Structures are given as C-alpha cells and as structure tokens.
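Lab meeting minutes (informal)
Scribe: AK
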Amino acid sequence: MQFYEDIPRLYTALAEWGACILYLYMIKGRLKSGLFWVSSAAFLVVQSMFLIFTDDLPTMFWIPCMFMAAGMMYLFLVLWGKISWISAVYCCAQAFLLAEFTASLEWQIHTFLQKEISINLWQSALLLLLIYGGCFAVMYKITSPLLTKDYLSQISAKEAFSAAGIVVVVFAFSNLSFIYKNSPFSATLRSDMFNIRTLVDMGGIAILHAYQSRIFEYMAEKELSAMNLVLKTQYDQYRNYQDSLDLIQMKYHDLKHQIAGLRAETDSVKRGEWLDAMEDELSSFETWNKTGNRVLDTILAAKIFHCRKNNIQITCVADGKILDYIHVIDICTIFGNALDNAIEHVVMIPEKEKRLIHVSVSQKKNFVFIKVENYCENEIIKNEHQLISTTKSDKQNHGFGLKSMIQTAQKYNGSVDFGVKNNWFELKILLPRG
C-alpha cells in the first residue's frame, strides 16, 4: 500500500500552472512581456506553497482549498488573458480539469513504475515532463482550433457556468472515493481509486470537448445563417430597386415628352426655370444608368438616391461590362455591402462637405479591380481574422457584410484588402477574370 500515496501537492501545482500557461498561449494572451514571466513564476510559487501548506488539513477543508486554488487560476487568467470574466470562467474550468487529469495520469503511471522497477529522481522528473508535455500537446492540438478570441467573445454566462458545472460534477465523482468511502460509487482499494479518478477526469475532458465543439458548431451555423440573410437581403433589395427603376424609366420617357410639350406652349420664365430643373434631375439620373451592367446600374441608382437624401456626394467611374461573368447575387453582395458600409460611415460625419464616396471598377490586365472609397478620419483596427473590430455593443450581429464580401471574392479566387490612407478608407477587391 505504500506505493499508492496521493498525488504530491507540488505536482498538482505544476499541472495547474502549466494548464494556465497553455490556455493563455491558446488565447494569445500577453505572454511576451518580462513582467508576465515574473508574475507566472510568482503564481507558481504561491500556488505550490498554498497546496503544500494545506496538505495536512482535515478532509472537510480539502474541497474549499481546491476551490481557492481554482480561484487563483481564474485570477491569473483574467490578469494576463485580456479576456472577459465570463471567458475566464470558461477557460479556468477547462484548465482546472486538464490539470486534474494530467496530475492524476502522471502520478498513476509513476506509482506503477515505482512499484515495478523502482525509478529514481531523474527518471521521475523525465516522466513528469513527458506526461505533462504529452497531455498539454494533445489538448493544444484538439482545442486551439476552437478556442479563438472570436469564439470566447461570444460565450455567454450560461455556457461558461455550464462548463464550470460539468467540471464540478466530474471533480466530485473522480475524488469521491478519497472523501467518502461508504457510497455506491466509492472504491475501497487504493489502486481502484486511482483508476476511477484518472478515467473519470478523462471522461470529463471528453465531455467538455464535445460541449465546446457543439457551441463552436452552433456559432458557425448562426454566423452562416446571418451571412445568408445578408446575401438574401442584398438580392431582395436589388429586385426591389429594379422594379422601382423600371417604373422610373417609364416615367422618365413620359416626362421628356411632357417637358417638350410644355416648353413649346408657355413663355413663362418661372415655368421655364422649373422645367429646366426637372430636366437637370432627369439628366443626372440618366448618366448614372450607363455603366454597362444592369445589376450595377440598379444598385448604384438606388444608393445615389439615398446619398442625395443625406447630402452625400458620390462619384463613380465604372466599366460594368467586365463584371459580366460575376453572378447577380455576388454583384449585389459586393457593391451592396461596400456602399452600405461607406454610407453608414460618412453619414455620421457632421461636416456635409466631407461626406464623400467614390466607386471605381476597372480592368487591370486579366483582373477586375473594384475600389470603394469614403472619407474617413477614424482609425481602423483589424482583428485576428483580418476584419474590422467593431465598437458597437452588439458585436455578434455586425461584420457579416465584410465577411460575405471576403467569401464572395474567395469564391472567384480573388482577394479583399482595406485600410485608411490620407483620411480615405479604401476597400479594394481584386478578382481574376474568366
């Protein structure tokens, strides 16, 4: 029975420290500063001393001490992870369970080898490095693709506390035999206690990973649904614009004849000025309807009407014929979203003379080059996905327009780039022809 001693508290502290470092690395926290490594060393020392000094306390104090240890892990993650308290709860729950499983697995193998071949101190240290390193490497491989900043920013309090609840239940069942031996789920043999603890912890990690994968899939499905809604909205807008413009075209031709008739019938200066104004309006509309692409003409005409209502000056130099190979929905997606984003920004500028938008569509060798510019005095910040970091409170429901433009460009093996240059925000899209 001497071989089946419980896990040394130093091993547990090392596992908890290593798990925190792993999760900070996965969420790309502030790991490069010297202050971080000083702080992490201090955290390891404090965590080790706390667990070692509380080792001899009665069993009734053991669970509160473990909660305090988890609390210190939480504070460490909040301090250096640059994440919200909800995200920190979620990461801390996973890190704590990983630490429990890693320490349990390593000590179980260590105990087995000590009983069979009597390993020395250096072999024990090597075993610890191999087991801890292996467990952390496997966890990194399966978790890092899911644990992104975007994913964590969308984690709700309900999901975070659900993950924490899973960990509490798993921790209780895995250590039940050590706390209370007279229960239907307790083991009496020390070796069985070790097996139960390790296997239950491993099962808990599997459950947490499945739970995390399902949340990730749900978020992806929600984002895809939102993007499809954006695409549908843009296309529906185009269809509505087209119906309206067909009627306007009919009225346009009727009015031209009416103006000619009225001009011939009256000599009134006032009536003449009024007719001149009508003709100018019609002429200005006519010039916007000749890019060579009916879909682009429709979108531009609708956006121009909206710009005029909001005192926005919009200019366009476009060869719409080179867009003939691009699907109608994709043209709606690119130009509808690009112009909507530009209008949304410039309409907030107090000085009306600065409300400027320019659109150009041209051919560069065997590529279509689309450029939508608007006056901008703000700093544009790109996030980890090369998207604009929104300052809006409803972060989950914004940014889909830019994402849909990027996906549309990628559909044609093209690319999207954006940035601010000389107080002009430039959205540039390059699409191969053919």
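Next up, CB showed the second protein from the same session:
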Amino acid sequence: MPTVLVVDDTLFMRVAISNMFNEWGYDVVGNAVNGKEAVAKYRELQPDLVTMDVTMPVMNGIAAVKEIISEFPNAKIIMITALGQQKLILDAIESGAKDFITKPFEPEKLKAAADLLIGQQC
C-alpha cells in the first residue's frame, strides 16, 4: 500500500485530502502544517508520495520541496495551489515537484496524478 504525507496549514484540507487517499487505498502515514514540519516528517517517514500546499507559515511549500529534493532527489511531490499562483507553480516544478493541482480541485484529478506518480492504474 503506497504511503502519503499530507502537508497543508489548513486542518480542513489535511483531513479532506487524507480521507480521499484512505478511500483510494493509500496509507496516510503523516500530516504536517508547514514546510519545516514537512521536511522533518519526510526524513522520518520517507513516504511514497507527498501532497504539498504552497502558501504556509514558517516555511512555504516551494522551500520545503527544494529541501526535500536536495536530500531525496526521487521524492514524488504534488503541489496543491490556489488559483492565480501560476508563477509559484512554475517555481515548484523547477524545484522538483512532479505535478500540481489547483484548488478547488476535483478529487479525481488528485487521484489520477497520484496514481500516475505511484505507477498504479487509474
């Protein structure tokens, strides 16, 4: 069962995304509320996949992606961004994120991106 780390500063989004992954047969092994916590949890858990919010306190998602990718170049990270953050999306992809989803999103889009990165059939 593929493991997932869900990173978002909003409790509602962490719970919603975690519930989706649990329904889809993934194992949500951790949650983080900011980029700094995400980096620490990634080191500890080394999940198969990360969903990473862009705008968060303490350390934003772009900085967290850069730090995770510098240590774990094969990390699979999907950025989750708000509408109108195209520049940040480009920064995220250049920093090593593998895909992005724009909020609000259809669960099927997140599942398709996750399954593709993990290598499961959609």
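CB comment: DSSP finds five helices and five strands in the chain.
No objections, moving on.
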